[in-house]
């Protein structure tokens, strides 16, 4: 999404650049030049707002969740590996203890001692493992919701800024729309007058 956003911003910057180039070429026509300058400035502001939005997306969603995965999930996986290893050790110790020949007290004592130590280690690590699961679940919930909330706040700000910008531009847009309507009417009248003059000239030419 972030990469697509960057591409979108680049395209919009190019479009704004095109609008401003066109404005320079139309300097002799004040109406066109003024319109392109105003709209070009507003579009540039929108590009700036987009840049802020995508930067927020980069920081709040991508980086925050990536850090969560890289740090917290990685630590959890390491603990799980240790837990699995100790569990295997305890299973081996249980088997050895069960298979220890009872007529050999020394081997029985050694197997029992190993089992006791391994069992204590397993219980201790199991508690840590369960704790990490609970902590990870709670943190996952917080990280995901916090990242999305931050991003939605950024969206809210983006659309508010866009609305404010266009709201300020609205009177000019309405004025321009009225002028364009009048321009269409004037052009139609001028066209009819020219057609009428053209017809008169043709009639005179035929009569001569």
Question: Which value, in Å, is the CA radius of gyration?
Answer: 38 Å
* H/I helix tally: 3
Helix-strand pattern: HHH
Average pLDDT, rounded to a whole number, is 85
Portion in beta strands: under 5%
Task: Report the span from N to C terminus.
Answer: 74 Å
How many strands in all? 0
Q: Shape, please?
A: rod-shaped
- Given the helix and strand composition, which structural class is it? mainly alpha
The largest sheet, given as strand count, sense and whether it forms a barrel, is: none
The helical percent reads over 70%
Low confidence ranges: none
Protein name: Arf-GAP with coiled-coil, ANK repeat and PH domain-containing protein
InterPro entries: ACAP1/2/3-like (IPR045258), AH/BAR_dom_sf (IPR027267), BAR_dom (IPR004148)
GO molecular function, one term: zinc ion binding
Function: GTPase-activating protein for the ADP ribosylation factor family.
């Amino acid at each position: 999404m972030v990469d697509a956003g960057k591409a979108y911003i680049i395209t919009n910057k190019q479009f704004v650049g095109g609008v401003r180039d066109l404005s320079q070429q139309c300097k002799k026509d004040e109406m066109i030049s003024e319109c392109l300058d105003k709209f070009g400035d507003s579009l540039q502001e929108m590009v700036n707002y987009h840049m802020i939005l995508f930067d927020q997306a980069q920081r709040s969603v991508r980086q925050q969740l990536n850090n969560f995965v890289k740090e917290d999930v990685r630590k959890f996986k390491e603990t799980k590996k240790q837990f699995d290893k100790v569990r295997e050790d305890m299973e081996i110790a249980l088997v050895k203890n069960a298979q220890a020949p009872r007529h050999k007290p020394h081997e029985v004592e050694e197997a029992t001692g190993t089992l006791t130590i391994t069992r204590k280690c397993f219980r201790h690590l199991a508690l840590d493992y369960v704790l990490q699961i609970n902590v990870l679940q709670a943190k996952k919930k917080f990280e995901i919701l916090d990242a999305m909330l931050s991003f939605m706040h950024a969206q809210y700000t983006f659309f508010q800024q866009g609305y404010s910008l266009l709201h300020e531009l609205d009177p000019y847009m309405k004025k321009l729309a009225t002028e364009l309507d009048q321009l269409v009417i004037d052009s139609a009248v001028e066209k009819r007058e020219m057609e009428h003059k053209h017809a008169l000239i043709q009639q005179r030419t035929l009569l001569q």
